[in-house]
């Protein structure tokens, strides 16, 4: 790193002052946590690690040489293996390394480069020599983290980024994306690339991998989205059988090599893609980084790289590893004082940089992540690469060459797991919204009726509390709670709000919504992550003893659902993904409405209690304003039921849901018409068409003296909807979820 700070940057630092820098750090950390759904690995320091243009030329040249050397070593180790006959290779250590996959020997190359990506952790000694501390070849990462760091800091400290001309990051990925497309089109391929993720619970790593896939323009898939057969690796597309049109040319793996093929590499937690090694051996698909690339991370091999470089490339290795017998003194970068002082201090740092295969040679991402290495708390920083003074922005950020694309299938990026996630995203969004509205209305009603001593208030409140249990299926719930005991009622409400391990609770539904959303990172707007973060923070406050009243918090969560719905509506393309998410939303909203009507209007009560309950239903379904415009009368069960069942203009009515649901189902791709999909919806429509609000509210003698016909009718409709949800899982995804009273549930 440069030992001096650019004059323009130094001037801007003086203008900002220590308080503004600290504020930028905290704002960036909050924005980062919202986007990543997890904290950064250390304090975010807005002061960059600066590399001058001349320093970058030396460093990037050394990294490119290192990538060429490792690429040549891989080709030899998994090809002729001539290095084993030399005196410089650590033959014994390599042969004993479990990362050396013999089944990958002999897999043909596509093009001149075998390695696609290489991540290097480097540092500079106090005397100005760059050293490589670590190579990451099997599952390299860092691109998404670098882009996110640049994004949040440029928004939280925009003056710093306006002060200095530095090399941008997106043009680099434009060039790599073009090169990847051309690579996949070699030998007549379609150019389709997919990114395979491994199993992992680290939100930062998951975020990084999804961002990387997004930058490469490739869909993220799981192992179960792929299958081999007829000499091809194909995508499992929702609703239709795979054919050569869904063939994958390039598999960018972000999972360890050993987890990719249970047939040739053994069983793994990832399950893998049976036959993938054979498909790669036949040249039907290129796997990058290639299988067994983790062998290049062998510590003994790293020590031998200087000699191997002279033997293979006939060059001296430019970037060496530090000597193991003594720890070098690393150069420093200007940083915020970890002790809280007002003046910046110098702290030693390491840089994480990414090398990717371009069209003709390897290229280094002109930026990365710097991490402090002293004994103080860790800080992470953006890496700036300065533009040469004589250079122009046009020369640095030239547009990549245009690529002529052939027509791709209608749904090129959709797989069964992504389709299932979109479907469940829609369902969980509706669950969180309905549960929040239901609980808020119950709390409002409790406040309104709590001071009353008559039987009307107790009856209405009991109906609504038991309706919460019936709609959310959190049994036994309020059916076994003494409704006259405020403490027991409060305890049950708190559990419904905060118990993450209780299926149907608000916390569990939101947790599932957030998890599902993280898997769709490359398909939804970036604007939803701050909304998710705010909703998560609000839900966490619900269980605090000294928290504010629950009603405002529930209102904030409902506002978050509305914002998510609007962001998805305005940003998601109207393709298969939209139809699957819309189908999930309509099924869930219909289930919730039917369950609510069944629980509240399924029995007749005396007029005053029934009026209170009906008014609460109008609030929950947001139909009060429409009711007042249509009917100039007090809210009555029969009239409200008519509105909620038949008004196709009301967004929460049954007629509206069935119309939207039918339209979405009609657009889903099918190899042949599926009677298991059509029959439940047809049965539901037939049943609903015959409904009369007056008849539904008539007594049904078979279900008790106060029961109405609405009980049996809504139960039959709910059964049809559950059959439809199950058929969708079977036809478009896979029947991996288990059933619950909600229908299908994956909790």
TrEMBL record:
Domain of life: Bacteria
Occurrences of domain Circularly permuted ATP-grasp type (ranges): 48-324
Stretches assigned to the DUF403 domain: 420-733
Pfam families named among the record's database cross-references: Alpha-E, CP_ATPgrasp_2
Name of protein: Uncharacterized protein
Annotated organism of origin: Brachybacterium muris UCD-AY4
Lineage, opening ranks: Bacteria, Bacillati, Actinomycetota, Actinomycetes, Micrococcales
